[in-house]
Amino acid sequence: MTCRPTDGDWTRGAIACVTRALLCAALVLTADPAGAQEWGQFRGPGAAGVVADNPDLPERWSATENVAWRTPLPGLGWSSPIVAGGLVFLTTVVSDGDVETPASGWYRFGERDAPEDVHHWLVYALDLETGEVRWRRELHTGVPASSHHLKNTFASETPVTDGERLYVLFGNVGLYALGFDGTLLWSREQPAAETRNGWGTASSPVLHDGRLYLVVDNEEQSYIAALSAETGAEVWRTDRDEGTNWSTPYVWENAERTEIVTTGTDRIRSYDLDGRLLWELAGMSTIVIPTPVAAHGLLYLESGYIADFLRPVYAIRPGAAGDISLAEGDTANEYVAWSLEQGGSYHPSPLVYGDHYYTLLDRGLMTCHDARTGAEVYGRQRIDVGQAFTASPWAYNGRIFALSEQGTTYVIEAGPEFRILAENPLDEFTMATPAILDDSLIIRTAEAVYRIAER
Predict the structure, then answer these.
(1) DSSP-based three-state secondary structure for 16
(2) Does residue 278 lie in a domain region?
(3) Which end of the chain has the lower number of beta carbons within 10 A, N or C?
(4) Distance CA 259, CA 327 (A)
(5) How far apart are the C-alpha atoms of 402 and 13, rounded to whole Å?
(6) What is the pLDDT of residues 198-215, one digit of tens each?
């Protein structure tokens, strides 16, 4: 591997590089690191953002401390990094013209007209060990046929992989399958459709048993579709009575069956693997972004548009059928194990860690509830004044990690008492959720990609 010092102190940097080279050589002799280090979709296995405890995972870092490498990345994109086959995959879109950069925080009037400059839709593969660009593939070039909100991008959908192919979705452009060497295997156009207020797209594809599942919610005709992962051919499509949503669907493998769960402003809907509606639930906020997650035999769903009174959380039991919406004044029924009227977050997806259900609110607050019953463990706790949060939280080693838009990761003690243990600043704007590896994190900022690891 090529090794270069990564900080201003040449001596310390050189020693670190030599140490890392020796460690990599030892790993080659004793294990297959590429096979062990995989993070194949948004929030990793089960879309949960949780991995097993590992003392080698980092808990402290900064722009100069515990940085294994930093690789600049051009363009704009809030897709999360994924990792497979010793490569870190990311998407981005580069404009030939000037691009307005987003500001941190929640604000209105982020609508923008569709740009008139030529853009380039790109996939990057970085070497996991060194951060070097192994290949770069341009999948589409042209003037965008749609717009996006100032805090969105044309590359907000996270890729997914089955360990053999990389599947990349650019909303309102197309879906692409690539080999790990960057070879284009197949592609499928996704015609541009109007989105609410021109805010653009963000729902990522999910993969299960040789099929890709896409939710395409817009202001024209929303639908969910299953495609062959091998060929891209459409297996089935079911129209949805929904407007624009930005939530990624969830494959829920429960004791009763496997189902594809979608959240939406009008209704939460679950489908079987042939596209038939299984159950539905009304009562979400007017903008829906967080991705569901499952634990303890329950499915957790939430939405929390800041301007709404209703910002709900629902915990669903398996086996539901038909309309399971709550009657007025109820908080539970046969299939809704528990619910909260004002517990959901606007952007970050929820985190279930141990026996607790954590919600990270965009405005820098965290709440904790009993994951099985919904009972409050602690109410809103302030993380930091003036910090905004879009990336979803993650957890390991008894710690919860919350990455702010300003680039600071707050390390919070897991459990019944709220306590901030550390603050790890990178001082770069970020909205993407990191990937977790055996011994490190991959963090994407507006400027670069970092591998954070104990040095």
Answers:
(1) helix
(2) yes
(3) N
(4) 24
(5) 28
(6) 999 999 999 999 999 999
